[in-house]
Design brief:
InterPro entries: Glycg_phsphrylas (IPR011833), Glyco_trans_35 (IPR000811), Pyridoxal_P_attach_site (IPR035090). The protein is of the alpha/beta class. The strands form 5 sheets. Strands 1, 2, 5, 6, 9, 10, 11, 12, 16 and 17 form a 10-stranded mixed β-sheet that branches. A 6-stranded parallel β-sheet has the order 20-19-18-21-22-23, sandwiched between helices. α25 links the parallel β22 (about 665) and β23 (about 685). The structure holds (1S)-1,5-anhydro-1-(4-bromo-2,5-dihydroxyphenyl)-D-glucitol (Z57).
Length: about 800
Amino acid sequence: MIELNKKEFKENIIEYLKLFYRKNIDEATNQQLFHAIAYSLKNTIIEQWMATHKTYEEKDVKTVYYLSMEFLMGRALGNNIINLKAEKVVREVLDELGIDLEDIEEEETDPALGNGGLGRLAACFLDSLSTLGYPAYGCGIRYKYGMFKQKIIDGYQVEVPDYWLEEGYPFEIKRPEYAKEVKFGGYVRMIRDEQGRDRFIQENYQSVKAVPYDIPIVGYGNNIVNTLRIWDAEAINTFNLESFDKGDYQKAVEQENLARIICEVLYPNDNHYAGKELRLKQQYFFVSASIQRAVSKYMEKHNNIKNLPEKVCFQLNDTHPTVAAAELMRILLDEYCLSWEEAWEITNKTCAYTNHTIMSEALEKWPIDLFSRLLPRIYQIVEEINRRFVMDIKKRYPGNESKIEKMAILYQGQVRMANLAIVASFSVNGVARLHTEILKNQELKDFYEMYPERFNNKTNGITQRRFLLHGNPLLADWVTKKIGDQWIVNLPHIDKLTAFSEDPISLREFMDIKYHNKKRLAKYIKEHNQIDIDTNSIFDIQVKRLHEYKRQLLNILHVMYLYNQLKKNPNMEFYPRTFIFGAKASAGYERAKSIIKLINSVGAVINEDTSIGNKIKVVFIENYRVSNGELLFAAADVSEQISTASKEASGTGNMKFMLNGAITIGTMDGANVEIVEEVGLENAFIFGLSSDEVINYEKNGGYNPQDIYHNDLGIKEVLDQLINGFYTPEKPNLFKNIYDSLLYSNGYEKADPYFILKDFRTYEAAQKRVAEAYLDKERWAKSALLNTAKCGKFSSDRTIEEYVQDIWHLEKIEPK
Ligand code: Z57
C-alpha cells in the first residue's frame, strides 16, 4: 500500500509554492495553495498509478473502454483525499500550516465536461471501477469550454463560458507520445495491392492530431488508479513555409482551423439531438483516437488481432460514440486486412451499447449526405453493415417491408445511430428496470424480437463516496459511528441502520444532522441569493436539468396554487415550506428558459409578500452543478422526482437524495419504481399516471386538458395568472407560450404533452400528504432514516459489478 507521507507532503507544499510561484506559505493566495496541495497529493497518486499499470501489464488484464462524450467529474481534490484515505494526514498538515481545507477545495473550478445525468453516471462509474479494482479507461474529449456557467440576471438565464483550464488543471498529464491522427473528408479510392487484394485508401482528406491527457481515477483505499483519457486536437504540422503551393497553403490553414475548433466546447444539450456537423466531428475524433490507441496497445502485447474481444470491450455511453463500431471495422479491414466476416465477428464481440432515453427528440439520425461527406470510408462500411443486416431481416421476415422500415440502419436519407449500435453490439442495456422493459416491449420491440439475448438491464447507481462521505460528512460520521465503515465500499451494509429506526435518540440525532445541513445550505442561499430562509421549514428540492418532461412546471404551478390558497385564507393550517430549484436550460431551449424565468418571477413576488408570514419561499440556485449539488442533497427533506411516467429513463438525483435521507415525492418512473420497492410505499409519496397510462394516451392522440381547465377553478386561476400579468405586470404576455403549451396543440405538439394538468390534482394531494406527514416529527424522522438505510441497491458499485458479470467479464485486481 502506497500512502501519503506526512512529512513529504508538507515539504512538497512548501517546495511547490516556491517553485511555481516564488512564494512562502504566508504569502500565497488560496488558488496557489490549491495548486501546491493538489500537486503534492499527485505525488502519491502517481506512485499508485504506476504500480496499478505495472500490475495490469503483468497480469495482461482485460480492459473496458468506457467511451463517452461526457464526464461530469466535479471537483477532484476533496474526492482524491478521501479515496486516498488521506484526510487525517492532510488535515493535520494543513492545520500546522494554518490552512483551512474547505477554503482550498472551494478554489477548484468543477471540471464540468458533461451536461447532467449521463455525464455524471460516467463519473460515478469510473469511481466504482477503480474502487472495485477493475481495469478501465474512460475515453472522452478535453473540451476547452465545459458546461456553461449559469448566471441569473433579472430572473433570466444568461450563459457564461466555462474556461475551466484558465488556471491549469493540476491532476492531468499530457501524453504526446500516444498521439493519433484522425482523418476527415476527402474520398475513398480502391487500389489493388501486391498480393492482389482490394484496399481502400482515403485521399485528399483533412486531418488533426489527437493528443491525450490522462487524469487519475483513484480507487477508495485500494492502491488502484485507473485513467480518464481525454483527447485534445492539435494541428498536424504540415505548415512548411519554404515550399508550398497554393493548395497546400489553403489546406494547412483549414487543418489548423479544424484542430482549433474541434474540442472547443461541449454541446449543452441534454436529451436532445441537434444534428450539428461539428458534433459529428467531435464524435469521430475521440472515438477514432480511442479505438486506434486501444488496438495498438493490444497489439503491443499480443500477436493475433482475432483475440481482441478477450482483452478489450468498448462500452458505448448512448449512441454518441457509435461510430466506434465502424471505426473498428475500418481498422480490421483496411489495416489488418481481415475478411468482412472475421472483422464483423470481432467487432460484434467487442462493442456493447447503453441506451439512456426513449425521448424521440434525443435520437441521433445523421443526414447521409453530411455523414458520408465527413466520413467517407466509415460511411461505406456502414452501408455494407446495413446491406447485410437488411438481408438478414428479409431472410427472417420475407416480404415484411415494415420491418425494414423500422429497423434498417440507413433509411430515408438518414443514418439511424441507435439501429447501428444495436446491430453492431453483443449487449444492449437500459438503465432502470422499467426503462429496459419499455425498450423491449415498445421502442425497440422489433430488435428485441430479433436479438432477445442481447437485451439486459443495468439499473443505474451513484457513488456513496462522493455523495455521502464527501458531501455530507456529519451524516457519514454518524453512520460509521452506528454501524461501522463497511458501507463506504459495500453500501448494502447501510441497511444495518434499520435497527435504529425506532430509537428516539437515534432519530433525534439523525434529524439534528439534517438540521445542520439545512443551516449550511441556508448560509449558502443567504450569500448567493440574499434570501433568508426558515431552517425549520420543509426543504423541498428539485435540482436537475431543465426539461419539460421533468416537469419543473408542475412544481412551480403547484407553488402558485398554494400561494393563492394562502392569500385567500391566511390563517389556514400551513407548515412553512422552502421550494428550492436548480436547473440549467440548454442555451437554445426557449420553453425551458421561460420556465426558469417563471420560477424566478413567482419567487420574486412570493418572497416579498409579508402578508403570508414567510410561509412559502421560492429559491432558484444559480449555476447548479456537482459541487453545490452535494450541499443540496445533504439538506433536503423532500426530493422532487416528478417526471411524466415513462420519460425519465432512470434518474440518479433521486438516489443521491435518498442516500442523504430525503423522502421522494414522485411518479412511478425510471428508478423511482425500484426506490419505492426498496423503501416501501409508506416511505415515499407517489402520485400520477402510470407509464402504461401515459403510453396509452399517447397512442390514442393525447387527452384534452381544456376539460380540466374549465372544470377546475383552482387550476384555471393558476393558468390565468400566466397571461394576466399577475407575476410580471410590466410584461403580461411573458408566459403566454407556457399557457398555450398547456392548453392548445400546434403543428408539432399536442396540448399538454407532458400531462401536467392531468397529474396536477394527484400531485397536489401528494404534497398535502407530505405536509401532514411532516407534522409527526418522529414518524418523518423514521421515514427519512429508512430512506438512507434502504438505499444499498443504488450504489454504482452494484451497477458496475453487474456490468462486469454480464457484459465486460473483467478480472478483479486485489489491492497490494
Ligand atoms: C442524459 O443525461 C440522459 C439521457 C440521454 O439520452 C442524454 Br443525451 C443525456 C440521462 C437520462 O435522462 C436519465 O434518466 C438517466 O438517469 C441518465 O441519463 C443516466 O442514465
